Amino acid sequence: MKKILSFLLSCTMLVCMASVLTGCGGEGDGDVHVFYYNYSDTYISSVRTALGKQLTDAGVSYQDYDANGNQTTQTEQVQTAITKGAKVLVVNIVNTGSDDAAQGIVDMAKKENIPVVFFNREVSDTIVNGYDKCAFVGTDAAEAGHLQGEMIGEYLLANYDAYDLNKDGVISYILFKGEEGNNEAIYRTQYAVEDANKKLVAAGKPELNFYDASNNDKYLVDKNGQWSSTAANEYMTTALAAYSDSHNNMIELVICNNDGMAEGAITALNSVGYNTGVDKEGNVGKSIPVFGVDATDAAKDLIKKQKMAGTIKQDADGMAKAIALLTQNALDEKDLMDGTKDYNVDKKAAKIRIAYGKYLGE
Prior knowledge:
Elements: H1 2-22, E1 32-36, H2 42-57, E2 62-66, H3 71-83, E3 88-91, H4 100-111, E4 116-119, H5 125-129, E5 134-138, H6 141-158, H7 160-163, E6 172-177, H8 183-202, E7 209-210, E8 220-221, H9 229-242, E9 253-256, H10 259-270, E10 290-294, H11 297-304, E11 310-314, H12 316-331, E12 344-345, E13 351-353, E14 356-359
Parallel strand pairs: 1-2, 1-3, 3-4, 4-5, 5-13, 6-7, 6-8, 6-9, 9-10, 10-11
Antiparallel strand pairs: 11-14, 12-13
Helix pairs in contact: 2-12, 3-4, 6-8, 9-10
């Protein structure tokens, strides 16, 4: 009997440990079910950590899910959560290219009268306005691109000749786009270059020149839509084989849609002796400016070590706090937007915008 009781106790402990590891803060599978498009995304990982703490501190039981970049997987996860009796669905939608996936999730939730809070990866006003228990927490997609472009232009003008490595009077750049059809990626890609060019031209300098004249898109995209370090590293490594000091056409600027891609590009640059940071004697070696978005801890560390120039802060804690507020409202059967007067809320839909900010180091 003692052995049986000991075995049962061990099983109970394992179940509890599993609950902690998967984010379940209470009985069963949690009242709140949170669906992430991809755990491996660095910024999303930061949001997940912050939101988990917010919900835990509030005594809310929850369950996390990883779609691993697959919309079919995520939709099936939502169906499972609803079957389990979910009281609130918090969704970081995978497919942002159309309304289909988000609409499907809303339709399932609406049928069971379950509130839905979308976040980070934007859904349309039509989706949000189509269900009175639906809201979105995210950013102004264009703002990050504008801020990054301004930062790049200002940075280059501060010491233009030093960044013009081959002394041809023009700064050549490479740009890594996270995903096709995603508003954040679209606007970051567009405005990072446009706004940098405005700064340069106003100061009497020529516009930026994409390093590869044969590329009409003027960017390289992560074909898997993962905004990944790996994709940027592979692209950068290939580019550096043809565009280098030895060919007198070294790429002089790296623009990335997120910090993960910036990390990958920097790793590739390190392999050819660039952006290695400060050495033991306190000297900084050969370097070109690399810019990202998110202000992840890894990016902040790279900036501190002078391996990366700057990034745009996307406030993971602020986003998590807003999500937690709407989630608690849903659990308390209040209007989702109750208590949001201090937030920047859209006029045409129940959408909260978390502000971006420039980050060049502390």
